[in-house]
Amino acid sequence: MEIELKPQRYKEVIAHYDVACGYGPQLLAAQKAFGRAGNIIDTELNAAGVVKRSVFSETECAEINAKFAAGLRQEFDRDVTIQLFKRIFATDIDKDIISYFGSEYFPIGSDFYETPVDETLRESDGWHCDAGPSKHLIMAAYFTPSEADAANTIFLNKEITHYMKEAGYVFCNIQHRITHFDVLTDAMSLPRVPVNALEIKAGDVVVFDAPNLLHRRLIPKIAPRRLMMTALCPSFKPWVEVVENSNFPLPLDGETFPPLPGYAQESAS
């Protein structure tokens, strides 16, 4: 397959989300208002673009998996979502996130996903970065282990991601995404790049720099994969003040990063 590279595309994505949708000024203003600079840490999230931390116990995962079996869905289970956030953000993940943004943060969208065994691979499952603000995060809370489902999200490094943005691969047409990255590096006479495949245990939470780190999901082969996915953006106020006084959360389908929703803008007041 011939890949149509689009070298200027990443600049168009930044212009759309950071400028037209207002996320760039939001970040700068949130950083200016930030009052917890003393809690910033050296984190793998900044160094490598991804960090993994153990959060939920086996008992907690069993309870959440029972909710999945009963049909857990974000739009019907807002309170469950918020309680999971309170559990996650009480850990060092909070410090990872504020150290990435240099500000408070809020979850702009969240949803629960169950991926069945041998689900059909989609075009979107090729190597890619997420379109959106140039500074945003994706947080994945896993309730099943990679040992059980043989599937995970895998990552490349920040250096090859930056190179491929400039070269025009990262935001190429979705039908040109590839699943075997060596095909592209070989064609461009580049060294092959090692894949970062994190070993996931049930209860682990992974946070990654989705717009700046090439990644792709693998499909489960043994058992369904269950997780909660959340998109995070900078905020003027602590996340709990935003979500408990808003119509949060937006589902993670359709346009994840629309022009800033009202409750996000209100967080500045």
Describe the structure.
- The chain has 269 residues and is of the alpha+beta class.
- The protein has one domain (9-266): Jelly Rolls.
- The protein is 33% helix and 17% strand.
- It is built from eleven helices and eight strands.
- It has helices at 9-20, 23-33, 44-47, 58-69, 78-89, 93-101, 146-149, 158-167, 182-187, 239-243, 262-266; strands spanning 50-54, 104-115, 137-142, 153-155, 196-197, 204-208, 215-217, 225-235.
- The strands form two sheets. A five-stranded antiparallel beta sheet has the order 1-6-3-8-2. Strands 5-4-7 form a three-stranded antiparallel beta sheet, with no helix packed on it.
- The longest helix has 12 residues, at 9-20.
- The mean pLDDT is 89.
Brief descriptors of the model:
269 residues; alpha+beta; Jelly Rolls; 5-stranded antiparallel β-sheet; 3-stranded antiparallel β-sheet; 11 helices; globular
